[in-house]
């Protein structure tokens, strides 16, 4: 059963853990047999959205060409049209949390990936985010997580935003937190979060406070290292 401290780590790292599951779901740990066949997919696939060339994506991300081929094959198998909308995104994540309701957290995550705010996530959107999560520096990853939790993108996390995030995590974890957690547990957790993160006690957490506090947390730092060299 997860403790309050355990959920605090999840609040920062759950997005990264979820991507391990997504990679497995997409079959992205399987070896690539031949490069040409997947390269042809970029050129010949009749999809609604054709991604950037392999060479271009290799320049813009921290993945090799071969890794991008594996990622694209998995992405195209799951999303034949070349893009995924929010409802499909929610469906994918619901498979990993059958005991709970992951729809709200998936909504927040989709918003973080939909950088163009056009209601869909393309392969480029997917690998750009994945590159940060799996291959970025500690600062890169924490910046990405902060942006996820800064729901209105005003440069700070409020208690209201963090409460929405925490409620979505509790809902997603389902029976692993309920009914042992009291109804006011999300509020209690938010207060604990701000006690640690809001260094100047002004009622909001800035990106600087967030990164500094996370770097001081040994558990968070150790957990983040688990995602190094996943693929």
From TrEMBL:
Keywords: Calcium, Cell membrane, Ion channel, Ion transport, Membrane, Metal-binding, Potassium, Potassium channel, Potassium transport, Repeat, Transport, Voltage-gated channel. Residues 101-136, 137-172, 185-220 form the EF-hand domain. Its main location: membrane. GO terms for cellular component: voltage-gated potassium channel complex. InterPro entries: EF-hand-dom_pair, EF_Hand_1_Ca_BS, EF_hand_dom, Recoverin. Belongs to the recoverin family. PANTHER family: CALCIUM BINDING PROTEINS, KV CHANNEL-INTERACTING PROTEIN 2. This is Potassium voltage-gated channel interacting protein 2. It comes from Oryzias melastigma.
